[in-house]
Amino acid sequence: MVDREEKRAQFEEPRHRGGFARIIVLAVGVLLAAGAGFWAFLGENGGSGKYPAVSARAGEVALPLEEISDGQAHFFSYRHQGETIDFFVLKSHDGVIRTAFDACDVCYQDRKGYRQEGDAMVCINCGQRFPSDLINEVRGGCNPAPLKPSIRDGQLVIAEAALLEGAWYFQQEKI
What is the per-residue pLDDT for 22? Predict the structure, then answer.
């Protein structure tokens, strides 16, 4: 009789494993679908920019001055109707808060933007260097495209309309 019970146990074991395997495959499928949905959500809601996303309230983007006044360039992405607009903010050595699009009139089509080296912003595409105290002062050429801010109540404020004026730098089709 023991042999009979062992034989029965042998036949029941594969059926048990098959059920467990199906549960694992189903769980992995559910996780993959949830991950794909989350990824799509991020793409529609500001997660697809290469920098931290910011949003506008009452037509303005506001950034606390204490978070951007350390002399380092801080890069942000603003999304509007499926378009991502990248910009940076830094406090130059002369104490002025500077803002500019992460693009210029010459190299914008390559979509590489700028990086900071010491007290200068450097075009990643062509290597041109721009002293930080001239950002938002000099326009045209490979200079970072100016973005006009204001300061109010301890915040750097950028009008959404000003950001949208520079949207053409970031459009997929070349203008």
Answer: 66
